[in-house]
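Protocol step 4 of 5: obtain the predicted structure for the target chain.
Materials: sequence only (see below). No template structures provided, no constraints applied. The aim of this step is simply to have a reference model before the mutagenesis design in step 5. Sequence pasted as it appears in the construct record:
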Amino acid sequence: MPEPTTVALVAAIALVVGVALGYLARRLLAANSVRHAEGYAERVIAEARAKQKEIVLEGKDDALKAQRAAEEEAREKRADLQRQERLLLDRAESLDRKLETLERRESGFEERQREVEAEKERLAELQQRELAELERVGGLSVVEARERLISQIVDEARAEAHHQVREIERRASEEGDERARRILTTVMQRIAADHTSEVTVTVVPLPSEEMKGRIIGREGRNIRALEQATGVDLIIDDTPEAVVLSGFDPVRREVARMALTKLISDGRIHPGRIEETVAKSRAEIEVVMRQAGEQAAYDAGVPGLHPELIKLLGRLRYRTSYGQNVLNHCIETARLAALLAAEIGANVAESKKGGLLHDIGKAVDHEVEGPHALIGGDIAKRYGINAIVANSIAAHHQEVEQESIEATVVQIADAISASRPGARGESLDNYVKRLDDLQQIALSFPGVERCFAIQAGREIRILVRPEDIDDLASSRLARDVVRKIEEQLQYPGQIKVTVIRETRAVDYAR
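Step 4 output (structure tokens):
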């Protein structure tokens, strides 16, 4: 058995060793904790630095966007100021022109007043001479002389009034073009929206409202790509499940409609796919137009046309005029012209060709300035159409003089096709009622003996009793009838009013 001293020594050594081991263990644990803390601190610092860089980049991006927005707003304000400046300049020029016109009129009125005063003095002197001569002759009483003088003055006043009317009409004709431009401008500002929406807008239905966002794309890239590829404006508004395509070129609108319909059905809408689909749709439309032009030439019986004329004819498939399809109207005009030419002995082939091509200018009238008849005549000459047919095309609205009987046939066939009941959305009842209203308006004036509405209501001829209506009253009657028609009737185009007065002198030899 060991001694107590030895046991105590061993216990003391064990205690010292345990304490040392515990101290070493605590030191190791502390060092390990320090290392973990340092690693965590380094990660926190790295994350903080990364977030700091991200925040700085976002701040720079926001500053760049704000700068771009400010520049865009400044550009818009500059453009607005320029538009206002141009508007003010235009108004100033218009006021200057009006002032010059008023000054000219004022000087003209003063000169006319002096002429009237001189005429009054001349008449007074003539009256005195007449009275003196009558008194010298002595064969007339004062009352008879006065009656004779009054009769002469009345005749002179009527002649002067008639001269004044002719002068006013001449001045009105001279100023008519400028006034017509102002009137047409005002009318177009007031009513162009309804007509424009009918002939320049196509509506494409959508399967859902969610499709609008996909058509617009991220930051509008899809809609910009569509507009650039088609040349048509896309209007995405509050209209439920629909997109509006706006453009003056009907072929471009049809290409855009076909491409957008394909993209909606496919579901893949991005700039690359848009360009590919638009190109395919344009190629398909070209084929359809060529086939439509060839079919129209075949239906009208006009072979041997130039391929470009065939293509332009096909473009008319997508053009309408007062609700009437222009290509169908051209085919119908060609058939009518052939029938009329055969009846009167004119050249049937040239009349038929002129009727088919008479509205060819409408295929490009949104691109070329000028009346569509003159444009069509130039196109026909360019592609080898002979002079008679080209003149028939250019003269069918009388912008140029008709040089052949075939030109007159084409004009008549065009009027028949456009004005027949139902051709332009007008029912037979409305057509007959409009003709009857025209005749009733004319018959409501005193002195009218008979009247006839001709040219499908485009002209009304009025026969008056010559003993009740003189030449001056005939002109006044024509203006009164025109004014009443404008106030009471609604009609397309214009109506020509012709007043006919016939005086017959009849005697018998016995």
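Step 4 remarks: Strands lie at 201-205, 233-235, 242-246, 320-321, 324-325, 448-454, 459-464, 496-501. The first strand starts at residue 201 and ends at 205.
Proceed to step 5.
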